[in-house]
Specification:
mainly beta; Neuraminidase; 4-stranded antiparallel β-sheet; 1% helix
């Protein structure tokens, strides 16, 4: 099983996981422009897109990078673009592989690029600046767009803004036409700091992880307006926890019966049972991530394996999932790479490459 590793080191990696024993190895690496902190794979064009997370102030700008994976397993940088904001940290590509949407954390902006038929960056279609702030003076002094998620219908993108405690929805058709009028579909409790979200496959439920409040917010979703209606807010931290804690990644199990959420500091992944009919959550336990600062994790399509990128311990760890309980057991081996922040399973399909 192959997977990509992005991070705050000098290289982007393609690695391999042996599902029989959890052993991992790096197959190939490519030097990145800088800080390829989040990656997205598009099997149809054989392209891997990365946020180049640079820019210390809101007036700085980061980059976006596009790499092609060839049949020999080599990654080659083929295209770069200005992110129209500082510290891009998350991106998504639409189903037709025509638009890429990226969130710039430090500047609180969202950028949209057209993609060429070959997958390179084309025209910048929109650059949207979020405005506002929250009550946390250290983290919410301004807008901070943290992620962009395309809905299951592939018609809209939802942006989590940690700085303004909001989820903002944009129509992809409007973004592609250069129009950027968004609508707030969820306003969270002040100081929550929404970071990422996960859609159920049918789009009826959305789960938002709050970085600052360390909770998961379960919402029902209005099919017509996209408005998110909170129905549950569940804590991620163990009872009596003391010390720093910042929630990070959230993902549903492929069968829809479990929800997973990582927390940096206590370095754990909380597991929730999910009722597929109602979308309701119930705590099922937690497990340690095998390292420090689990910024990102991913479950493979079979629902049997889970990878965790433990950023501060320079370690990617693999786990096997017990589908009867949702809990995961660590494999005996780990992979040492510099500051991993994203681990993404590689799904291979027949690729139809077309000229630009």
């Amino acid at each position: 099983m192959k997977f990509f590793i992005g991070g705050y080191g000098a290289d982007l990696h393609l690695a391999d996981l042996d599902p029989s024993n959890g052993a991992m190895r790096v197959m190939t690496s490519v030097r990145t422009p800088a800080n390829a902190s989040f990656v997205a794979w598009v099997a149809g064009t054989g392209m891997l897109y990365a946020t180049v997370e640079t820019g210390a102030t809101a007036t700085d700008s980061g980059r976006l990078a596009a790499f092609r994976l060839d049949d020999a397993g080599c990654l080659t940088l083929v295209s770069e673009a200005d992110s129209c904001g500082a510290a891009p940290c998350h991106l998504a590509v639409d189903r037709k592989n025509r638009l890429l949407v990226a969130a710039n954390y430090t500047s609180g902006s969202v950028v949209v690029y057209a993609l060429t038929r070959a997958g390179a960056f084309g025209e910048q279609r929109a650059c949207i600046q979020h405005e506002g702030q929250g009550p946390n003076p250290a983290r919410q002094e301004a807008a901070h767009a943290h992620s962009a998620h395309i809905d299951p219908e592939r018609k809209t993108v939802c942006v989590c803004d940690l700085g303004t405690d909001a989820v903002v929805r944009y129509e992809l058709s409007e973004l592609g036409a250069g129009r950027g009028s968004g609508a707030t579909v969820l306003k969270l409790r002040p100081g929550s700091g929404p970071r990422h979200l996960a859609f159920s496959d049918d789009g009826r439920n959305v789960y938002v992880i709050t970085e600052l409040a360390n909770t998961v917010l379960a919402c029902s979703r209005d099919a017509r307006t996209g408005v998110l209606n909170p129905v549950q807010e569940l804590p991620l931290l163990p009872e009596g926890h003391r010390g720093d804690a910042l929630a990070a990644e959230i993902q549903l199990h492929p069968d829809g019966r479990y929800l997973y959420a990582s927390v940096r500091g206590p370095d754990l992944i909380s597991v929730f049972r999910r009722n597929p009919d109602t979308g309701a959550l119930a705590p099922a336990g937690s497990f340690r991530t095998g390292g420090s600062w689990p910024r990102h994790f991913q479950i493979d399509e079979s629902g049997s394996h889970l990878l965790v990128a433990n950023e501060r311990s320079n370690r990617v760890c693999s786990f096997t999932i017990d589908k009867s309980t949702g809990m995961a057991t660590a494999c005996r081996t780990s992979l040492e790479v510099e500051a991993p922040s994203c681990a993404l399973f590689f799904r291979e399909v027949h690729r139809h490459r077309r000229a630009s």
